[in-house]
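Pasting as-is:
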Amino acid sequence: MTSSLMTLAGSLLFGMTLAGGAAAAESAAPFRAERQTVHREQDDLLTAGLGLAGLRLPTPPAFADAVHPTAAEARRRAIWSNWRGIADLAPGGGYGDVYGGTLGAVPGREFSAYAQLPGRHAPHRVMVQLPDDFDAGKRCLVVTAASGSRGVYGAIAVAGAWGLPRGCAVAYTDKGAGSDYVDLSGAPAVGPAGVAEAGSIPAFAPPKGDAQGVAFKHAHSLDNPEADWGRHVRQAAEYGLDVLNRALPAQAPFTFDNTRVIAVGISNGGGAVLRAAEESKGKPWLKAVVAGEPSVLAPGKEGRALYDYATEAALLMPCALLAMDDLPQPPLAAQRQALGAARCASLAAAGLLDGADLPAQAADAKRRLLANGWTEASLRSGALSVGFDLWRAVAVAYASAYGRYPAGAHPCGFGYAGMGLDGVAHAPTAAERAAWWSDGSGIPPGAGVGIVDAKAQAGSDPTFAGLQCLRALWTDHDADAQRVQAGVAQTKAGPPRKKLPVIVVHGLDDGLIPPAFSSVPYVAAAQAAKRDVRYWRVPHVQHFDGFLGLPDYAARYLPLLPYVYAALDQAWAQVESGAPLPPDATVDAKPRGAGNALSAEHLAVPH
């Protein structure tokens, strides 16, 4: 959810001379540890020289030295990983011929730094990709936030793929998350270049203590970064203007007044750009916003918090799926089936389900989820999240973040450690640590890091006690529960600024961020407040384009990205020429079926 043959122009700090001859004076904005790299021959901004064929390869680009990758190798692998985690690049999936760019070379320069919000413990990574064919006449800056807890390249398939070929600069933020994992044994931490370098400033330095294992920024920064996601996006845009002013002095100044800034993100990156859209004080700075499948806590009482429905799903969904027919068949389907029976028994023994036998218990679990707003479609595609234990992974990390708990102090006793497929914790190896930044999706398990569950019990449902504890942080009223709930409350969104064009795109089959809990109440509240928000509802689209390489998923579901790109086209037309935004729409999309290549007719993208 990784990188390149890179022509390294230099690793520059503020105050040094940038390409173009401009002296970079100390900026008033809180940016530090800046690097500039050049990406041209045998390399580029968008694919690190891999092209579509290289991104499609099933194995990541190798490090020449597994323990000591170069910055260029780490970047190339990070770009490969993030493309494959977000986009469906499988043959027949349509990328590059039905929708999206051809992933040809986009030469240019890349600038990256740490940005710091006042009063916060940890920085967030910001990055600007400036193509050589930047069109100073249209002065376009796309700003984006990584989805999930991904690193700073996490939105390259979303914002970079649309903006860079059009001559726009693209500014990114990891929004206080990312894959800057830290081995608490004292091993070297990752620095600005994505590798451990002597004397470099670490991207995340957890408070010193007695904790063991692995820490990461989203969970353990003590900042509750989600509360600041809109400010992270604004700060990334400010860095984008700063870079443009220094890198293109002949066309300067670049300001929010004379530069068209549009924001785009998907998943909780979509939530981040919606938070950025709220700003009402001071001069307007955003010209348009596109949010795909946004994870956002809507204003009012209609929306549900991610932590609420994730912990509910973690407990009930394995059992409820036994009452569903025609489930998609991802890997681990057999394990999901076994877990479902064990979970029904655990829930019934705890008095959380009714039913005298397994079918009745599964039916009751399904009934409870449907009564709380889940749909048959969202439950069906949610089977993927059950199979990959994603609900528990989200709940463990977000509980720590919302409650601002340091590593080793999780209220339910969870932690993280090096871990292989056998599930046994071990001290991370040097080779594992070297690949974390490139391979990690931001929230373990993955990239050789797993969840340590202090409440795990022997038997067929070992995670049940820990999940009960995580759910109680939402339903109970003790000190830890109040602490987590207060953190969630800080993430509630407001309506976007008046007259700001906003397009929200959401798949109706989304099983991770069901639209009924996020987009629907957000759009309803915004439109009731007379904001210029349009909503595209897309049937047969679930949350993860990257899993459409699985044959059963490819037959059933369509990708989200073509609709996000189309919404960006519409938003840009409005910004550039005043064209009207498209109306609300339910798209007439149709699955491609087994064995068929995706076509434009399947997508029926609004124009």
